[in-house]
Amino acid sequence: MLYFKRLSVVMGLLLAPMCGQVAMAATQAAPSSPVTLAPTVGARDIVQEIINVVGLKPRFELRAADIDNAAAVVYNGKRYILYNERFLAAINNAVHTDWAGVSILAHEIGHHLNGHTLSRSGSNPGDELEADEFSGFVLRKMGASLAEAQAAINLLSEERTSSTHPGRNYRLASISKGWRSADEQLLASAKSPQPDQRAIVTRPTQQPQRAATVNRSSASLDSRMVLSRVVFAKAPQEQFFVTTRLNLVHLTDDGPKVIGKLAKTGNPDFPYYFESDYLKTVFVNNKGILVNRQGQRVGHLS
């Protein structure tokens, strides 16, 4: 149900003119077979990532279809997310980020989860803003910057409000609202006390031992505060640690310095990432391997 203007940059990529898709019971035949998005936006199962972020089960199917762009529809009582593969690839190429395609799919999923497709009235500005806000929320949870979350709508939306879709500035503001809401949640979660994960065990009584320390010159860090060491491939001699408060700490000659946080993504394959003003986005997979946005290995946890 995205409403897109005709753009020379997209037309140059041999796409047909793009128009809104109506969010009501579809009358066309259902798509022939489900597909994944691997050829378009990488190896990740984007829809599953989005569902993981919001903690709900997907009650719709993702299908490639011969449509102009993307749409959330209901056909014979079943929900679908339809998308044009060439359209998503073209948008990603136009704005130079795969997050554009992710935001479009998140927008359409937002229509389903907000109940917009249960109405037969079609698209309207209010519903579109709700779907935009959902998109911004989800992309922040997945690790996108605000600019990346807004990239597709900034490129494709009309400047003026129509009877079915709000103007560009309103849509960007709604994406920003959702993004900042998720950002506040992540920050609050990182600052909250972490639960004690120790299990009840039986062991012989023994004298308490003095806690070991991690040393670098005169600086020290109590090992009881350390969850893991972080080894970056480009700085293997430097000492970085994740603490029990999920802080990313760099141990310098002047003492420990907090340079970031370990935050959750909702993606089971890359469940964490480092949120930092000092580092580019680094994801942590379920084996403790650190990778960048391009999927390149840049370090590990030890």
How would you describe this structure to a colleague?
- By secondary structure, the protein is α+β, with helices and mostly antiparallel strands.
- It has two domains: 8-189, no CATH class; 213-301.
- Helices cover 32% and strands 22% of the residues.
- The protein is built from eight helices and 13 strands.
- The chain has an eight-stranded antiparallel β-barrel. It has a three-stranded mixed beta sheet with strand order 1-3-2.
- The termini are far apart.
- The model is unreliable at 3-44 and 208-213 (pLDDT under 50).
List keywords for this structure.
22% strand; three-stranded mixed β-sheet; disordered N terminus; 13 strands; 2 domains; 8 helices; eight-stranded antiparallel barrel; alpha+beta; 302 residues
